[in-house]
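Q&A log
Question type: sequence-to-structure
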Amino acid sequence: MSDGGSSPTVIIIGASLAGSAAAIELARCGVSALLLDKATFPRRKPCGEGLSSRGSAELIRLGLSKREIQEVGRELRGYRIYRNGAAIELPDSSGLIGVPREKLDQRVLGHAISRQGIRFRGGITVRSVHRESDGFRVETSIGDVTSRFVIIADGGNSKCARSLGFSPAELLRPRYGTSSALRVTSGTLEPFVSVSLVEGGEMYVTPLVDGRCNVSVLGTKELIQRASRSDEMRKMLEADGATANVEFDQEGPSLGAGPVNVGYRASEIHGALLVGDACETLDPCGGFGMTHALISGRIAAECVSRAISSSEPARELARYAYEREQAVRDLRGFTRLTSYMMSSELGRRTLPIAAKLGVAGVISDAAHMPHERPFIGSVIRTVGVL
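Response status: OK
Response body:
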């Protein structure tokens, strides 16, 4: 594979948020990287398209301005949960925004490839990754390329991770998802994520910019198969309290994903690091998937950069698992609590009480700002390791 340059120090497989975040951080540290993706950008991908304030903070840390984030995102005021005709409102003052994934990915990738030392090749399929004595050989659809390190950001069902021997964690209760892009043609969506609790899972409607919205359905495989049909999707929207009087046109086909709650037991092996969903897929109901992608990509790049200049590179690489865990334990704990409240019958019955007492809002604030609410934050982190 010819790139018109010398072999990169790092190959990054996957140029979405996690991969592009890693590339930006590597460039800051003066490390060359080749960024590969099977897609050409911009492109849609399955996503709930809700970004937390911690995710926005990561974007700013990576070099995006507040103005750039505001251009692609719509500020939201929280969640409205509908069940059996009743609505529960959960305000969120932390800075939640709805953002089209294809626009955000394109914006972050643009920042990555503008950095010195970063090369990007789109439309390239990575077939496998092989460990060699001095690094890695990546087999692609147009030839092989070698590097000292590899960062894998190719999603939850990562073939590259499996080819290197990463073992997936045991999955007790798989959940699946589908994502659809819709344009509002009549009516108005208020600035809330609406959540409809349905048999077998949940439906999320996230308002976006330019009169668009994202509709995601999470739950059993049977529910997702039904929701992927446009006529069934419309029936679900008509039954939703927030969208009953709103009309939509669907833009493109629904995109499926799953399982959406899979993790890996390890996150680093001999200089190969997993980031984003390839490392751990947080159940999307918590809204922290994009945030985790940005955080894990940055931390992986920091560890690789330190390993390059260290006399003990293996020690620096081994720190990735610890540093990522410390950074995302709050996200995982909040996601698990949210998933339980949404998907279990006891949780659904308890949710109105939690909302009325303000407990749900306190937990959400602690997940977004863990240092400002240390006690609740410690509870969330404890759930994150159970």
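Response note: The chain has twelve helices and 20 strands.
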